[in-house]
Write a structure and sequence with these properties.
It is a single chain. By secondary structure, the protein is of the alpha/beta class. It has one domain: 5'-nuclease (Rossmann fold), CATH 3.40.50.1010. The protein has seven helices and five strands, in the order βααβααβααβαβ. The chain has a five-stranded parallel β-sheet. Strand 4, helix 7 and strand 5 form a beta-alpha-beta unit. Helix 3 runs antiparallel to helix 6. The radius of gyration is 15 Å and the shape is globular.
Length: about 130
């Protein structure tokens, strides 16, 4: 999807912290440069955000993730997960399962991932990664 971005969990955590401190930082600065882009999160990211204590109330969680389109599971996502997993395992480069689902979803939807953990995600072949 052209002009679209997947905002990875680290980005959202930083964005939430910046908002709580009322002090813009790297996450806000990145968003200001991408005002016209469509912002997405994956189903996995929505779950990770729900795990945090700061958004442990459902209404607060829904309000926080509300501006973002949640990209869902599909057979293409499952296939990309398996393909990436095989490559990473064969090369001793495995990443965590949730991060692999995030990467697979971004690949399947053809959207870059925005993260401060770029080195980690760049292990995944075919994934476009933007660091902030």
């Amino acid at each position: 999807m052209e002009d679209s971005l997947v905002l990875e969990t680290t980005f959202l955590v930083d964005l939430e912290r910046e908002a709580a401190r009322e002090k813009p930082g790297r996450a806000v600065a990145f968003l200001e440069k991408h005002l016209d882009d469509k912002l997405h999160i994956t189903f996995t990211i929505a779950g990770e955000i729900a795990c945090g204590t700061s958004l442990s109330e459902r209404k607060a969680w829904e309000r926080f993730i509300g501006p973002f389109k949640v990209l869902g599971f599909s057979l293409d996502v499952a296939w990309e997960y398996g393909r990436a997993f095989r490559f990473l395992e064969e090369n001793g480069l495995l990443i965590g399962a949730n991060d692999l689902w995030i990467a697979a979803t971004a690949i399947a939807y053809e959207i870059p991932v925005v993260t401060r953990n770029a080195k980690h995600y760049r292990r995944v072949p075919g994934l476009s990664v933007l660091e902030y």
